[in-house]
């Protein structure tokens, strides 16, 4: 989904690494692949500008 962009650098999406338990549900539900696995237990923001703020990951 890297071709779908409206404005860059304006998303309010905040990922709190210290609170992540590594369940991976955000990866499963995000329609724009904003998250990616980072090691076995953690997740990272792979493409924050892809976020359309749908709220599914929350
Ligand atoms: S709010 Fe929606 S688009 Fe943005 S990261 Fe979460 S699931 Fe993906």
Determine the N-to-C terminus distance: 20 Å
Number of helices: 1
Q: Name the average pLDDT.
A: 89
Gyration radius, rounded: 11 Å
Topology:
Elements lengths: L24 H5 L5 E4 L3 E4 L13
Antiparallel strand pairs: 1-2
The structure holds iron/sulfur cluster.
3D architecture notes:
- The protein is mostly beta strands and 58 residues long.
- It has a single domain (1-58), classed as Alpha-Beta Plaits (2-Layer Sandwich).
- Helices cover 9% and strands 14% of the residues.
- Strands 1-2 form a two-stranded antiparallel ribbon.
- Strand 1 and strand 2 (42-45) form a beta hairpin.
- The mean pLDDT is 89.
- The structure holds iron/sulfur cluster (SF4).
Question: Which features does this protein show?
Answer:
2 strands; binds iron/sulfur cluster; 1 helix; mainly beta; two-stranded antiparallel ribbon; Alpha-Beta Plaits; 58 residues
Summarize the structure.
The chain is mostly beta strands.
């Amino acid at each position: 989904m890297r071709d779908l962009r409206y404005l860059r650098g304006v998303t309010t999406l905040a990922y709190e690494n210290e609170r992540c338990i590594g369940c991976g549900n955000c990866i499963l539900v995000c329609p724009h692949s904003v998250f990616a696995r980072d090691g076995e237990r953690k997740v990272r923001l792979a493409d924050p500008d892809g976020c359309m703020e749908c709220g599914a990951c929350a």
